Amino acid sequence: MILKSIKYFAFTISLLIFAMGCGDNTPxxxxxxxxxxxxxxxxxxxxxxxFQRAKIVFFALPSPIETARILKKSGAIYNKAFLNPSSNATxxxxxxxxxxxxxxxxxxxxxxxxxVQQQDCLEYFATIQKxxxxxxxxxxxxxEFIETIEKNINSEDSVLKYLSxxxxxxxxxxxxxxxxxVATLVAAGGWIEGLHIASSLVDPNNPLDPLAVxxxxxxxxxxxxxxxxxxxxxxxxxxxxxxxxxLLKTSFDKIEMKIVRETKEVDENGIETVGNTRxxxxxxxxxxxxxxxxxxxxxxxxx
Amino acid sequence: MKHLQYxxxxxxGVFLFSNTINAQCKRFTEKQCLPKLAPFTNNGQxxxxxxxxxxxxxLIMTFYSLLDYRLMVCSHDVLGAGVHFKxxxxxxxxxxxxxxxxxSAWDFRVNSTQDLMVSVIAPQNPxxxxxxPASGCVSIILGFRE
Lengths: 303, 146
Fold this sequence. Notes:
The structure holds 2 protein chains of 2 kinds.
Chain A (H helix, E strand, L loop, with lengths): L1 H20 L23 H10 L1 E4 L4 H10 L21 H20 L3 H17 L8 H9 L4 H21 L3 H22 L8 H21 L8 H14 L3 E5 L4 E2 L5 E3 L2 E5 L4 H17 L1
Antiparallel strand pairs in A: 2-5, 3-4
Chain B lengths: L1 H32 L7 E2 L5 E5 L3 E8 L4 E8 L8 E5 L5 E4 H4 L3 E6 L3 E8 L13 E11 L1
């Protein structure tokens, strides 16, 4: 009887550990490395083992909301023809297609809002509401929420605030429900759409175009996105996206990058400017190669 | 049959327990942390975890040139006031240390788009006199503005 109880206890503990750390939809954490231990941290030897175990490395996902702002600041113009028509929303049947499409529409909405296109914003909010419901994201894009947006649609800042809050809640709900793989596909869809918009606007024959620079910079996000996709224990549902992005990465890897170290500067408002400066050089034909691949991948996901 | 009942009860318990922790962390971040980002706009991504005293967590984040950022680490009171964060560049150079700066948020911009590593450290809380290490929600949140 005692043995049986011990057995159940051990089993329960194993199950707890399994459930908390090994969900199929939960990204695995990078193996701990000593490099990541903060040498200044005062930890006694008793705690060291736990500390070593507990070092966690996450990867942050790219945000389509940020991308839209960067595009505008880089001289992009608004052209609805480059966006995924909201009428396409009815054509996505699997949850993978819906998650990627949700990210694409969030990026389109962010882009429309950056250029104060109120009618298009409302249209995309309605599309996002529909797709969110189909992905079982409840109580985020509610009818009341959409009505509030309609009332404040003329304020670019208000719409940005609502978009940011709702996107955060959607991500939080997906995490809460152990559906981080869906959140990753949403982010990947948004990232692809941002790249597609930049690709549609850039001069393909001018690698010095500011938008060509913004495209080159995306190699940093691409690398992190692939790492994140690969970190899931059960990557089957993410395989197609991972393969597509890996293929794209082979072209991004051809871009030459030069790094120059800079010293920290502080402006009159106390904002620090940090990090190195990077300049990019596209070898002959690389920009066009990237644009073609982006077009192929994006077309596949909006169909 | 009894075994099956036991298994189901435990499974449901574990599921609810893990969801409750995530839900609490979500509520904490939404109510206590996100409002502090103003006037910056949150980028919509969620980066939170439950840490024990003595734990550390690192997050690799991409920052874009052309935007100003506010990076903030927000932790539950139970972890004490010692929770702090450091930001390193690719070469491991420390760009910001919230403990030294005595700030819980950092406003900055980057020269060029790049990844930076944000490390959050939750040291032992001297106010915790029990043998059980305290655990609490820690959120790394990012706001941006043009």
